[in-house]
Amino acid sequence: ELEGLRLRVLEKIAPTISITSPGNGAYTHNAQQAIEFTITDEIGGSGVNLDSIRLVIDNGAPVTQSGMICTPDGTSYRCVYTPSSPLGDGSHTVTINASDHDGNAAAQASVAYKVDTVPPELNVSEPSDGITVARDTLTVRGTTSDITSTPVVIKIAVGGVDQGAVTVEPSGQFVHQITLAEGANVITVTATDASGQKSTVTINVTLDTSVPKITSATITPNPVDAGATMIISVVIE
């Protein structure tokens, strides 16, 4: 007669892995962006085997659970891994593998995202800073570019008032008409790339639409002989 005989039946349902941050196709200007993910096993299952977790960035060395923070949440573990050194600008891929205590391997989870720590280039060629103009409409012209994060969005404001949608050509060139107010105007041109990095150029332009008026004129001498020299003096307001 056998006593104490126990039969253990292995489960067949694998856990699931969900990467919550960064999102697939995301842009970030943080070169050490935290990677957040959740591993969930079924209720009544053998449970997530933390020792089985392997996280790989690009083709780097696998990171195990000892290099991250994993917090239990019911039948799940919420894990966070922060790269120990900054990643280079450009595309990166994260892959995560894990299994339960019965050896059921979860389907590999992966995301691809881009790191961009450099603001976009912005050059405003027109108008020049400090000029005075007589018309209330003015052309703003320039170029922008960003190797890592495209497209770049251009915003132009005059005195804090947005001047409407600005079209940026594939070459990076943009031309936009703005409206000035009488007197001093502060024009702000902002380029924002897909990762949220910004570059700003500020230009000061004065609008003076006043027309000079001649209030008086004198001729000396008066009368004057034909062929003689005379001086005409005017007073302008």
Description:
This protein has no helices and 18 strands. The protein has strands at 16-21, 27-28, 35-40, 48-57, 69-73, 76-81, 90-100, 109-115, 121-126, 132-133, 137-145, 153-158, 161-162, 173-179, 183-192, 198-207, 214-220, 231-236. The strands form 5 sheets. It has a 5-stranded mixed β-sheet with strand order 10-16-15-12-13, with no helix packed on it. Strand 5 and strand 6 (76-81) form a beta hairpin. The protein is rod-shaped, with a radius of gyration of 34 Å. The model has no long low-confidence stretch (mean pLDDT 90).
Task: Detail the topology: elements first, then pairings.
Layout: E1 16-21, E2 27-28, E3 35-40, E4 48-57, E5 69-73, E6 76-81, E7 90-100, E8 109-115, E9 121-126, E10 132-133, E11 137-145, E12 153-158, E13 161-162, E14 173-179, E15 183-192, E16 198-207, E17 214-220, E18 231-236
